């Protein structure tokens, strides 16, 4: 049982009409999307269901296409304003997506740091810095300075260890001479 040709007349049964509307609407919007994608056309469609509910599709948006349609008699001052606006909107959308990705990454990083601090038994900051009193800020400053000194000391230790490892791996002439004399 394959496809058969459907006569173009109104579907009598209301539930069948709703199903037909839903399927045809999806196909119509798909064709509009294909037209916009393949041809770079600006497309806007507004369809009302048999029940009176509106559905719309637009590329780049129904509003921009309808505004352009309404103002088609007016000449743009700076060339094709619509395409430059679309380019700006696309650029801003890409920036927004990048920023949202960065925010998500920072949230994950913050959660990992909180877990690490909790595992080491360090308390989480209870209030934002702007809400701390002068005494609490001085304590925070002291602990940050202490942390800075600890990091400096650790860096010095690591540099010294690295230097010793390099010296240990590099045989000296004296060591070679001593080994050959035995």
Characterization of this structure:
The protein contains five helices and two strands, in the order αββαααα. With 182 residues, it is mainly alpha-helical. It folds into three domains: 14-74, SRF-like (3-Layer(aba) Sandwich); 80-124; 126-172. Strands 1-2 form a two-stranded antiparallel ribbon. The longest helix has 39 residues, at 81-119. The protein is elongated and about 90 Å long. The N and C termini lie far apart (98 Å).
- Name of the top-level CATH class of the largest domain: Alpha Beta
What's the number of structural domains? 3
Oligomer: single chain
What CATH architecture of the largest domain do you see? 3-Layer(aba) Sandwich
Task: Compute the separation of the termini in Å.
Answer: 98 Å
Compute the CA-based radius of gyration: 35 Å
The spatial strand order of the largest sheet comes to 1-2
**Strand residue content:** 5-15%
| Relative helix content | 55-70%
- Average per-residue pLDDT, rounded, comes to 82
- Following the backbone from N to C, one meets helices and strands in this order, namely HEEHHHH
Q: How does the overall form come out from the CA principal axes?
A: elongated
CATH topology of the largest domain, by name, is: SRF-like
- Which structural category fits the helices and strands? mainly alpha
Task: Provide a count of the helices.
Answer: 5
User: What is the makeup of the main sheet?
Assistant: 2 strands, antiparallel
Q: How many beta strands in the DSSP annotation?
A: 2
User: What is the CATH superfamily label of the largest domain?
Assistant: Transcription factor, MADS-box
């Amino acid at each position: 049982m394959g496809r058969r040709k459907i006569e173009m007349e109104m579907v009598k049964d209301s539930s069948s009409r709703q199903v037909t509307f839903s399927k045809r609407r999806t196909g119509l919007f798909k064709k509009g999307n294909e037209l916009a994608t393949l041809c770079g056309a600006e497309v806007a469609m507004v369809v009302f269901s048999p029940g009176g509910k509106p559905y719309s599709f637009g590329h780049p948006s129904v509003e921009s296409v309808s505004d352009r349609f309404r103002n088609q008699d007016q000449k743009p001052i700076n060339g094709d304003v619509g395409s430059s606006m679309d380019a700006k909107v696309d650029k801003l959308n890409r920036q927004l997506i990048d920023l949202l990705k960065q925010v998500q990454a920072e949230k994950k990083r913050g959660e990992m740091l909180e877990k690490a601090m909790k595992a080491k038994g360090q308390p989480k900051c209870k209030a934002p810095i702007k809400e701390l009193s002068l005494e609490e800020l001085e304590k925070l400053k002291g602990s940050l300075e202490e942390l800075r000194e600890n990091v400096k000391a650790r860096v010095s230790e690591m540099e010294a260890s690295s230097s010793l490892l390099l010296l240990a791996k590099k045989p000296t002439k004296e060591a070679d001479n001593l080994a050959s004399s035995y």
